[in-house]
Amino acid sequence: MTVEWEQHPIRSNVMFVQEDWIDYNGHLNMAYYNVLFDRAVDEIFLGLGLGPDYAKTRNASFFTAETHVCYLRELSAGMPVTATLQLIDFDNKRAHFYQELWNADENWLSATMEQMSLHVDLSARRVADWPKDVFQNLAGLAKAHENLPRPERSGRRIEIAK
């Protein structure tokens, strides 16, 4: 399956903040930002050939190796959100991408997430090369995103500057 990627970050379908995800501070608990980002990745990765059947039919999957989340603005129960994804880089075994979580009604940025994913052979439980078709899909997405500016929040690190 070959996908034609547009030359802008990919946008997920609209998702909603669930009432039971709200913490004692009255806003979305930090763990559920990751749930929303993950759901968006799953949706978008369908186009790469990495949908739910991928693990079953190929005995392989993609695992998260590292993430960096920045929380910019609170979300409340019932709010509609959408996530965008931009492929920053990839190689034979890894994919580095950046996401933004947006309020879908008022179009303000709530959070960002940068992630490194690894392709894993599930029988060996080891990092392995992407299959040719998935690699080609990643190459197509990389080509579509090659002229996008690198997101300002990409590559950040945590530190207390002295």
Name the features:
alpha+beta; single chain; 7 strands; seven-stranded antiparallel beta sheet; 162 residues; globular
Task: Please provide a written account of the structure.
- This protein is α+β, with helices and mostly antiparallel strands.
- The protein is 23% helix and 32% strand.
- It has 3 helices and 7 strands.
- It has helices spanning 30-45, 52-58, 132-145, and strands at residues 10-11, 15-16, 60-71, 80-90, 94-103, 109-121, 126-127.
- Strands 1, 2, 3, 4, 5, 6 and 7 form a 7-stranded antiparallel beta sheet that branches.
- A hairpin with a 5-residue loop joins β5 (94-103) and β6.
- The longest helix is centred in the N-terminal third of the chain and has 16 residues, at 30-45.
Quick synopsis:
It is built from three helices and seven strands; from the N terminus they run ββααβββββα. The chain is α+β, with helices and mostly antiparallel strands.
Write the layout of secondary structure elements.
Elements: E1 10-11, E2 15-16, H1 30-45, H2 52-58, E3 60-71, E4 80-90, E5 94-103, E6 109-121, E7 126-127, H3 132-145
Antiparallel strand pairs: 1-4, 2-4, 3-6, 4-5, 5-6, 6-7
Q: Give me the number of helical elements.
A: 3
3D shape: globular
Rg, Å, rounded? 16 Å
**What fraction of the residues are assigned to beta strands by DSSP?**
25-35%
Uncertain stretches: none
Number of strands: 7
Query: What is the subunit organization of this protein?
Result: single chain
Helical fraction equals: 10-25%
Order of helices and strands: EEHHEEEEEH
Distance between the termini: 51 Å
Q: Can you summarize the main beta sheet?
A: 7 strands, antiparallel
**Overall pLDDT:** 94
